[in-house]
Backbone:
């Protein structure tokens, strides 16, 4: 093989590594981080609903103590089902742009029922000022619930807009990089077949390295954003992405090595046959 042909083969191999890596990473992200179904599964797996419920209950109890009510006033006011319903609705809004509003009416209704029972049991007299205080108390409890569900309306809105734009771009880039990868494979096959194995091995090694690097340098499991419940979900998704890339990397390494061995063995067999044929001609 001439120097120019060899150099061209190297450049094509590098381009193939880049296109393969891009296609694999984008495909993995599309199936994990940008998948509504997968995100909901990760949320459930990280016990997010229950943890958020506990955070809300504890926050409400702190406020209840400051307000002079007994903690029992919060019994059965917030449940995991309501939290799950609202969190799933929030995810649908962020990923699909569906209409969303925190359904806090049930929280207020449950709280109002407990307060009325509390007043009746203690035979308190409710006047206009007392009712006003009760309404303010309920408003604040509802705000605590809403704040722990959607954190920040403006941030969630911006995230939803950016996420939907990215979700539209990723499949396009993924398809383009996939087509480029196929074209490069066909081109390299015509010039230098062993380079296909080297490209696969190099791409796999990079993906495996990401796993090693994240485990030794990047403290993914120590991520802490907003609260532990939210952080645990992020950690779960991040680890899922890295694990999938690692598995794909291992497969590519095996395929690359197998291909290199196959091509080399085939080359030796062909060489032996040619030598044998040449020796027969001489005889």
Residues:
């Amino acid at each position: 093989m001439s120097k120019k042909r060899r150099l061209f083969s190297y450049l094509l191999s590098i381009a193939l590594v880049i296109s393969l890596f891009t296609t694999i990473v984008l495909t993995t992200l599309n199936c994990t981080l940008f998948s509504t179904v997968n995100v909901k599964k990760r949320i459930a797996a990280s016990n997010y609903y229950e943890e958020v419920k506990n955070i809300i209950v504890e926050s409400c109890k702190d406020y209840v103590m400051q307000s002079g009510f007994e903690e029992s006033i919060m019994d059965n006011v917030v449940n995991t089902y309501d939290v799950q319903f609202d969190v799933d609705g929030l995810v649908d809004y962020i990923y699909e742009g569906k209409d969303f509003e925190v359904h806090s009416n049930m929280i207020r209704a449950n709280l109002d029922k407990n307060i009325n029972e509390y007043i009746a049991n203690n035979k308190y007299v409710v006047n206009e000022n007392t009712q006003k205080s009760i309404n303010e108390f309920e408003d604040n409890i509802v705000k605590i619930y809403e704040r722990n569900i959607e954190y920040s309306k403006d941030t969630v809105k911006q995230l939803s807009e950016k996420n939907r734009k990215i979700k539209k771009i990723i499949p396009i880039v993924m398809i383009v990089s996939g087509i480029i990868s196929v074209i490069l494979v066909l081109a390299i096959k015509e010039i230098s077949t062993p380079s296909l194995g080297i490209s696969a091995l190099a791409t796999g090694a990079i993906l495996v390295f990401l796993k090693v690097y994240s485990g030794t340098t990047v403290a993914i499991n120590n991520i802490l954003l907003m609260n532990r419940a939210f952080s645990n979900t992020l950690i779960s998704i991040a680890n899922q992405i890295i694990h999938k890339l690692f598995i794909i990397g291992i497969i590519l390494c095996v395929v690359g090595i197998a291909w290199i061995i196959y091509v080399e063995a085939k080359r030796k067999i062909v060489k032996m046959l040619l030598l044998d044929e040449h020796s027969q001609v001489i005889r």
About this structure: The radius of gyration is 30 Å. The first helix runs from residue 3 to 31.
